[in-house]
Amino acid sequence: MLLGGVPLFYGATVWLTLGLVIGVPSGYVGSSEVSEVVELLEEGSDKRDLVKRRVDGPAVYGLRIINYKIQHPYTIRYDDKLHFIGRNLGKIKQSWLSQNGRCHSFDSNLEVKLLKQNKSEVFFRRFWIPKSISTTEDFTVCISPGRNEAWKSFMKLRKARKSGGLYLPLYFQIPVVIACLALSALFSGLSVGLMSLSVSGLELIMQYDPIQAVYAQNILPLRKKGNFLQCTLLIGNTFVNNAATVLISNMISEFGIKSKMLDFAISAILPAFVIVVIGEIVPVTVCCRWGLWIGSYTRFITIFFMVLTAPVSYPMSMLLDCIIGKEGPESYDKAMLENLVEMNVEPQHGLSRTTADLVVRALNITKLNASSVMTPIEKVFMLPEEAVVDRDLVKRIHELGHTRIPIYRNHNRNMVTAIINVKDLVPIDPKCGLRMSTVVQVWQRSRHFRFVLEEFPIAQLLKEMKRGQPLALVARFNQRLKDYEVTGVIALEDIIEEITGEILDEKDVKHRHPRPANNTFRQTATYL
After folding, report:
1. Buried b (16+ CB within 10 A) or exposed e, 297-321
2. Which of these, 29, 33, 19, lies nearest to 62 by C-alpha position?
């Protein structure tokens, strides 16, 4: 850093001499004034007194700026400290700035204040530039007593405005900070509260929750513009957070903290702490619970900022729609639905355990095929066509409790020709000795049955069985025989049990809880 051609090192005490720095200072007898002094001495005693006053008066040799921070060596800021270097400085009564290079009269508005009053400091004194000086023009320094030629005292320096100070009046800046923090809380809360509500979820609330249907109806038009809404909330939140940080740091800097590290720590930590607590944690926690209600009552504020930020947020939302696509209806896979059902099993206000199991089984039915539900053919009670309908056969069928019996031909259990219903045997007299082939010919409907492959879906088979075919034979292709073979039987009851759980029919009740038969059952059994 140079001042008048002489280097000034920051933080070091460098004395600026008269001849090299500032020309001839007022009140100082230098080599350039030797001839003038000699002439005065020769003129008489009156002139000698004038020379004595000049020699004994204050003389400024140089100037040093304390805590110099700016690059230009001739620029001084508000509150900068100045070292006056010279002799007899204790005799300086007043010092001020001059804009015209003349020091005819003292100007209190441009006064340079004495930093420390000490009469012993005759060679080194401190002054400071007060804030009341608002000039930004070139100026020189005047002292009193001294000569009127200010330009001979110091070279011209430029007074620069200090960069500090509040950006706004304090009574206005504090409400602006509060408003920014309130908007930050609103934007953060709505980003979580609104975006966590899906379009399908809002439509579901409108249909099944009459209390919150009004809130959902107010939010749904905004929520359908998901990317536009998200861009608006993020842009607004970023803007108000930055504004709040700058304004809070600006107010903190006005406290005049001398330690740079402490000033930096407070300016960095305090705004971040305020924004995180007030603008993030609290609103997000609140809106996670009451996001529907808050979003409904603040929808007009949201619409206002969507319009305000539309020049930026709307093109960004259109770009996001092109890149990642518009937000579609929310859907769940089976695993997620099962977890949702299990999570909502509660003894009082949620689903009961029975209902939850029923829903889970209904969801899992699409995973099943015929082979996983059928009864293996080895465990199926079947009759050949040559079987005679007599009392012993009727009694056996009654003991087994079957309602439908497959009929096969030529001792080949894979060659099923009909499925007889037990009620078709009621009109037949056991004493007649009719064969099963004859019964099949009498009841032609017994020939109406179907085959399904082992891989056939149970859900599709259930639809077909509801049309009037409650029993089906399961088959598979035998590579060795190059033909299909029957592997099992599947009934409508088997499919329903996969959904509702085990169904206890008459046979199951008889085996598990035997009880006396009623009169009607005795009469039927006696007849058979």
Report:
1. ebbeebeebbeebeeebbebbeebe
2. 19
Summarised one tens digit per residue, pLDDT across range 306-357 is 999 999 999 999 998 888 877 766 666 777 777 777 777 776 666 777 788 8
* Alpha carbons 23 and 62: distance in angstroms, whole number: 9
Residues 6 or more apart whose CB falls under 8 angstroms from that of 453 comprise 370, 474, 475, 476
Tell me the C-alpha distance between 38 and 52, whole Å.
12
In 319-387, DSSP assigns E strands to 375-376, 383-384
Token pair 């359908």 in the structure block, residue: 224
In 1-106, DSSP assigns E strands to: 2-3, 6-7, 59-66, 75-76, 81-87, 94-98
Question: CB neighbours of 275 closer than 8 A, spacing ≥ 6?
Answer: 181, 184, 241, 244, 245
Please give the Cα distance from 307 to 358 (Å, whole number): 49
Of the candidates 34, 32, 26, which has an alpha carbon nearest to the alpha carbon of residue 53? 26
d(Cα 39, Cα 262) in Å, to the nearest integer? Answer: 61
State how far the Cα of 141 lies from the Cα of 147, in Å rounded to an integer. Answer: 12
Cβ atoms of 263 and 251 within 8 Å: the answer is: no
| HSE-CB for 143 with a 13 A CA cutoff | 27
Measured over the CA atoms of residue 314, residue 320, residue 326 and residue 330, the dihedral's sign is: negative
292 class by beta-carbon count within 10 Å (0-12 exposed, 13-18 middle, 19+ buried): buried
Query: pLDDT digit string (tens) for 176-193?
Result: 999 999 999 999 999 888
**Which one-letter amino acid corresponds to residue 59?**
A
Q: Rounded to an integer, what distance in angstroms lies between the CA atom of residue 23 and that of residue 201?
A: 84
C-alpha span between 174 and 366 (Å, rounded): 64
| Percent residues over pLDDT 90 in the chain | 11
Q: Which helix (H) or strand (E) holds 135?
A: none
The pLDDT score that the predictor gives to residue 140 is 73
Helix (H) or strand (E) holding 290: helix 282-297
Residue 420 backbone zone (phi > 0: left; psi -120 to 50: alpha; other: beta): beta
Q: How confident is the model at residue 507 (pLDDT cuts 50, 70, 90)?
A: low
- pTM, 2 dp: 0.50
Contact 488/374 with Cβ under 8 angstroms?
yes
Rounded distance between C-alpha atoms, residue 336 and residue 338, angstroms: 5
User: What is the predicted pLDDT for the residue at 167?
Assistant: 81
The DSSP call for residue 157 is: E
Distance from C-alpha of 325 to C-alpha of 339, rounded to nearest angstrom: 28
Q: Is 171 exposed, middle or buried (0-12, 13-18, 19+ CB in 10 A)?
A: exposed
Residue 289 has pLDDT above 50, yes or no: yes
d(CA 457, CA 371): 9
Both tokens assigned to 79:
């509150």
Comparing 94-108, 290-304, 496-510, the range with the smallest average pLDDT is 496-510
